[in-house]
TrEMBL record:
<protein>
    <submittedName>
        <fullName>ABC transporter ATP-binding protein</fullName>
    </submittedName>
</protein>
<dbReference type="GO" id="GO:0005524">
    <property type="term" value="F:ATP binding"/>
</dbReference>
<feature type="domain" description="ABC transporter">
    <location>
        <begin position="2"/>
        <end position="227"/>
    </location>
</feature>
<keyword id="KW-0547">Nucleotide-binding</keyword>
<dbReference type="Pfam" id="PF00005">
    <property type="entry name" value="ABC_tran"/>
</dbReference>
<dbReference type="InterPro" id="IPR003593">
    <property type="entry name" value="AAA+_ATPase"/>
</dbReference>
<keyword id="KW-0067">ATP-binding</keyword>
<dbReference type="InterPro" id="IPR051782">
    <property type="entry name" value="ABC_Transporter_VariousFunc"/>
</dbReference>
<keyword id="KW-0813">Transport</keyword>
<dbReference type="InterPro" id="IPR027417">
    <property type="entry name" value="P-loop_NTPase"/>
</dbReference>
<dbReference type="InterPro" id="IPR003439">
    <property type="entry name" value="ABC_transporter-like_ATP-bd"/>
</dbReference>
Length: 285
């Protein structure tokens, strides 16, 4: 679905944002793209959807260079940017004017999503609150039914019930034919939704791993004191949060926040442990 090889990109020559960046995304997965503020998540997504152009390397989407922005590719991908701008028309008018660009657009699904999100369908879009506008666009993005759906910080501006609703609707709209990538720096918003975690750090992808596999390989715990078995530890008022190897125990919950902190803190023991085995669908570390 998305094949990025040896991507080089920077807004200025002096400050490259990506160097030797590789990433593969496949159908049937919901990817969570995590990275610190300014790591380049939005920029990476823009390269994928043909709104930023690689300086070196290749970025292919649906078998075509993303930068070509071929109509057939654009009809089968939807990109929802972090900042949204809606026109001063009703939802119905917006749908009438734009749904035609997406051959698989599902009008019934849109009605259902708008009801679930409690977005008034008759209102002029610019008269809606920012959160309501965002929910309208998320509903539209899901209903467009494209093979590739790229959502940049979709939960920004959503209240707590809407975030839960967002996770529910996304899970409903997902099929094995689709590939979803969602960026966030609010790691907890994606827990229980994504199946694969992608971490962007230091100009490259430092992790692209299946959550089930991570749960089999790692355990996350709070202990009175970290010992030498910890691959990574972080002090807390209750003791220490630790990541340890899971030696054949039951897979538990992956603490995405702790894992993220470890990866961007460049925890060498964890990096080395994870690199010992090739994950199923992308080189890690
Ligand atoms: N159009 C642009 N022109 C010049 N620099 C830019 C442009 N867009 C982004 N940048 C810079 O590129 C870097 C990465 O920005 P980007 O928005 O991709 O990061 P991000 O990981 O999405 O951040 P955040 O989590 O804060 O949204 C930042 O230093 C930013 O200032």
């Amino acid at each position: 679905m998305v094949h990025i090889r040896n991507l080089h990109f920077g807004y200025s020559k002096k400050r490259p944002l990506f160097q030797h960046l590789d990433l593969t995304l496949e159908r049937g997965h919901i990817y969570g793209l995590l990275g610190k503020n300014g790591a380049g998540k939005s920029t990476l997504l823009k390269n994928m959807v043909g709104l930023a152009f690689p300086e070196g390397g290749t970025c292919e989407v649906l078998g075509q260079p993303a930068a070509k922005r071929l109509p057939a590719v654009l009809a089968d991908l939807f990109f929802l940017p972090e900042e949204i701008y809606v026109p001063a028309v009703t939802a119905a008018k917006f749908v009438e004017q734009t749904a035609g660009f997406y051959p698989k657009f599902d009008h019934e699904a849109l009605t259902h999503y708008l009801v679930e999100f409690e977005v008034p369908a008759q209102a002029v879009l610019t008269a809606l609150s920012f959160g309501q506008q965002k929910k309208f666009m998320i509903a539209f993005a899901l209903a467009a039914n494209t093979s590739l759906l790229v959502l940049d910080e979709p939960t920004n501006g959503l209240d707590i019930p809407s975030k839960a609703q967002f996770r529910k609707l996304l899970a409903t709209a997902f099929t094995e034919e689709r590939c979803l990538i969602i960026s966030t720096h609010q790691v907890r918003d994606l827990e229980s939704l994504i199946d694969t975690v992608v971490v962007l750090h230091g100009q490259r992808i430092v992790l692209n791993a299946d959550l089930g596999e991570l749960a089999e390989r790692l355990t996350f715990a709070t202990v009175p004191e970290a010992d030498e078995t910890a691959l990574y530890s972080e002090g807390s008022i209750r003791g220490a949060y630790v990541i340890r190897p899971n030696h054949g125990g039951m897979p538990g919950r992956v603490d995405l926040e702790l894992l993220f902190n470890a990866l961007v803190g460049e925890a060498p023991a964890l990096m080395s442990y994870l690199s010992q085995k090739q994950p199923t669908h992308e080189p890690v570390l």
